[in-house]
Amino acid sequence: MRLVTRHGSLNLSGPPAVMGILNVTPDSFSDGGQFLDCERAVEHAARMVREGADLIDVAGVLAPGAQPFRRRSRSRVPFR
């Protein structure tokens, strides 16, 4: 089965995927900035993969009016 939109199509016949959300901002509403440290963030992402996440969305957008922080690096980390 395919879902067709004006922007493209999405194959719905495969198994669903589970996405883990990793918030890496100091003002995160869901985790209170627990994963600002790179090592803690990677450990948490690995835990989400062990618990069944198929992919990880790294959320690094500050809320409006928040104090900006300096981005250290951008990389992809394979877990499987």
What secondary-structure arrangement, pairings included, does this model have?
Elements: E1 2-5, E2 8-11, E3 19-23, H1 38-50, E4 55-59
Parallel strand pairs: 3-4
Antiparallel strand pairs: 1-2
Instruction: Please compute the radius of gyration using only Cα atoms.
Output: 16 Å
Overall average pLDDT = 79
Which band does the percent of strand residues land in?
15-25%
Q: Helix/strand/pairing class, anyone?
A: alpha+beta
Sketch the major β-sheet.
2 strands, antiparallel
Helix % is 10-25%
- Read across the widest sheet, the strand sequence of neighbours is 1-2
Helices and strands, in N-to-C order?
Answer: EEEHE
So how many helices?
1
Give the overall form: flat
Q: What is the number of beta strands?
A: 4
End-to-end gap: 28 Å
Flag low-confidence runs: none
Structural notes for this entry:
With about 80 residues, the protein is of the alpha+beta class. The chain has a domain at about 20-60. Helices cover about 15% and strands about 20% of the residues. It is built from 1 helix and 4 strands, in the order βββαβ. It has one helix at about 40-50, and strands at about 1-5, 10, 20-25, 55-60. The strands form 2 sheets. A two-stranded antiparallel ribbon has the order 1-2. The two termini are about 30 Å apart.
Features:
about 80 residues; alpha+beta; two-stranded parallel sheet; about 20% strand; flat
Compact summary:
The protein is an alpha+beta fold. It has 1 helix and 4 strands.
